[in-house]
Amino acid sequence: MAEPRFRRPAMLDMEMADQLEGDIDPADRGLIAHETAAAIVAQARESGDPELVARLVRLVDEEGIDTVAMMWAKAGEHTLPGALWRIYMIREWVKHDAGAVARSYHHGVNAAHVRHAIAGVEDPPGPSEVQALADAVLSGVFSGDLAVALERAGAFCRVVATGAAFEAQSDEGHADRRAHATTLRAAQLLRTGEDLERCAAMWREGRLD
User: Fold this and answer.
1) Is residue 4 part of a domain?
2) Containing domain of residue 119, as a range?
3) Do 179 and 4 touch, CB atoms closer than 8 A?
4) 53 belongs to a structural domain
5) For the chain, what is the domain count?
6) Which of 97, 144, 189, 197 is the most buried (most CB within 10 A)?
7) pLDDT above 80 (res 128)
8) pTM of whole model > 0.85?
9) CA distances, 56 to each of 98, 132, 141 (Å)
């Protein structure tokens, strides 16, 4: 059976992450995924030339990060391209489902003391902050500690997962189908958060590639 073609995310939700595949020779996909991820992450760190960084931003703007991200979709969870794929998915989800994300984030912050439950992240980012963080990482201009960026994205996932779980519980008994879908989304978000946190630890240890 032929592999499905990668579709540009439109109203992309988190459950679709594992279903997206690239239209690239499987023998080359892994190598290309790792090389492009390393190039994007290294760009801001290795270049002292602001014009070079600006060109990379324009390239992503003009060609679309989708073209690059499609090569990361099948990477392992605890690899650099796998981490960037999850950052990309969060960015797309926040962009295309902003209202639902904001509601879940609000419920996550207010329904439980999640801020105190997330080790290492004193103030988890909100939807607009995590989108800005993702934009910086994916455009190659993020020059801070990547481990911190991954931890903050992971913390965001945990907050929204908490909110989604609260919403699912509220729907039980009168909107069971929606409650089931929201429960699945909460579980996916929690796994994504855990994957990003592990990637952060591996980056600090020099083992994320």
Assistant:
1) no
2) 14-204
3) no
4) yes
5) 1
6) 189
7) yes
8) no
9) 27, 17, 8
